[in-house]
Amino acid sequence: MDQQQKPDFDVISVGAGFAGLALIHHLREAGLSIRVFDRASDIGGTWTWNRYPGAMTDSESYYYCLMFSKELLQEWSWTQRYPDWKETLAYMHFVADRCDMWPHIQLNTEIVAADYQKEKANWKVTTAGGESFTCKYFISSMGMISHPVIPDIKGKDSFKGPIFHSARWPEDLDYKGKRVGIIGAGATTVQLVPAIAADAAEVTVFHRTPNYILPAMQKPMTPEWEKEIKDNYDEIVAMCRNHGFGMAFGTANGRMAMETSAEERERIFEENWTGSFRWVFETFDDLLGSPEANRWASEFIIRKMRERINEPEIADILVPKADDYPLFAKRPPLDHDYLEAFNRDNVHVVDIKIREPLAEITETGIRTTKDHYEFDIIVLATGFQAYTGALEAFPIRGESGISLKEKWKDESQSIMGVCIADYPNLFTITGPQAPFANLPTSIGQNAVWIANCIKKMETEGYDVFKPRKEAEEQWSATVADIHVQTLMNSGDEVNSWMMGANLGDKKPRVLIYFGGANNYYDALDQSAEQGYPELEFEKLSAPNLDSGIAENNAKPHI
User: Fold this and answer.
1) Confidence check: pLDDT of 117 > 90
2) Does the pTM of the predicted model rise above 0.90?
3) What is the pLDDT of residue 508?
4) From 3.50.50.60, 3.40.50.150, 3.40.50.1980, 3.40.630.10, which CATH number describes the 10-147+386-551 domain?
5) SS3 344
6) Dihedral (CA of 557, 67, 146, 174) sign
7) 188-200 burial, b for 16+ CB within 10 Å, e for fewer?
8) Can you tell me the distance from the alpha carbon of 200 to that of 211, in angstroms, rounded to the nearest whole number?
9) What number of H helices and E strands is found in the chain?
10) 307 three-class SS
11) Please, are residues 493 and 325 in contact by the beta-carbon 8 Å criterion?
């Protein structure tokens, strides 16, 4: 390889959210040139696109953040327990500003193709504007829930008013005094309904599957609480790293619901009903492992939900039954007075699963098998193609020329969610078969693994790594074996987006490693310590290019 064949960048990544920022930090520190592309007009990833009223995190602010710098953790101040999208986006701007990341980011640039060029051992990346760039390493930092699912509903193009996916909320939309129809009843709707109910004339939710809903119990960040957090950040970071869902939660210290009396169990459930997902992890250690313990937890939540809804008929639609599916077989949303919103005269729910299935969208509204509902605005809160959607949205072609979409037609396999057989020098952050966990924690762990792998290649003079097919098959088998032992393996009635069951063109598949995020992080560390045995490293016959790693004279960054 001569100097004329040197790629434009050592690394190209797509996606300027948490993952893109983490990569800039770790790879720039390694002396590599990196360009992060994003088709949005701002950084932020999820928090650039999801700007609907009420949009906020379900993880608490102080650990829903990047943790590569102790200085940044001390400098930034959160205003509340769960930040809304504006505060999260402001935080990401703070990180990009403070760490001088903007020179490495190119916005308003959509990537439409990525092709591995075997003869050059690099990737060619093409933009919607017709430009092309080359890189040695191509990385997806596009996020696991970034590609919206638009349902194929008859007549959806005939509606005369605004109709859009919730992740594409129009900036200038005025819903005050308007009739709003919402199709979908997942986490987005749970946040959206109470936020717009006070100003909209009417809000009607077209509801299919009831969710177990846990309370968020929002509260402001006080000086005392902030001091406690910042005085203990080392411990908080360690808790996230060693927790099964990557969160700063404690455990029940071996306390089992199956070994506790009904009266004491009820007391512990009630005492810990203080908001967030920590209720599941800090009450008993067997709620996600024992079907009977899980049912007790489900029944407690059901009682709590029904207490907040005035009309029993509405509660029958909104609240699951303990026999429907186990708690956490579907991701439970956190709510901010969602259930209470249905006590308002202007908020309605339509059961489209049993009572009156959706028939079509008309020029003026939504028709079910029983009635016609007129609206000024229709919101498609219909979720995302999890884990694989963004990776399949444009052709990413590997060594054989097959796109990821073609490869994953029947099964979405990977190596730990970070590498894919037949795709040399390609990394994915939180790709399929990674754990479902607090995303900034997993992103940080993936970015470190990727950066260290690249450092190994650059310092040892390797040009190419090829993910081993047998390693992919072994990881996929491990993920599948764990899956059948969990509550997610509960039959078709779960219908969870976490298995791709919300997609009409694909059969459900195992998309998530359910063996515990902490054990997954251990697997990443073990892989790095053993020299990345999942990968086959190669040197080309021609002399390698000078490594950017050896040329790094840039000033140090946080």
Assistant:
1) yes
2) yes
3) 59
4) 3.50.50.60
5) coil
6) negative
7) bbbbbbbbbbeeb
8) 24
9) 17, 22
10) helix
11) yes
Distance in angstroms between the alpha carbons of the first and the last residue of the chain: 34
Name residue, tokens 């001091």.
227
Integer angstrom CA distances of residue 287 from 267, 507, 538: 16, 28, 47
Cβ-count burial 125-139 (b if 16+ within 10 Å, e if not): bbbeeeeebbbbbbb
* Strand 365-368 to 358-361 pairing: antiparallel
Please say if the pLDDT value at position 552 is more than 90. Answer: no
Confidence (pLDDT) at 2: 42
Determine contact, residues 181/365, Cβ cutoff 8 Å: yes
pLDDT, one tens digit per residue, over 453-489 is 999 999 999 999 999 999 999 999 999 999 888 776 6
Task: Let me know if the fold of 10-147+386-551 is the same as that of 148-211+333-383.
Answer: yes
SS3 203: strand
Provide φ and ψ at 509, rounded to 5°: -145, 165
Secondary structure letter of residue 128 according to DSSP: T
State what percent of residues in the chain have pLDDT above 90: 85
The answer to whether 318 and 309 are in contact (CB under 8 A) is yes
CB 376 within 8 A of CB 161: yes
Per DSSP (E only), the strands in 208-336 are 214-215, 334-335
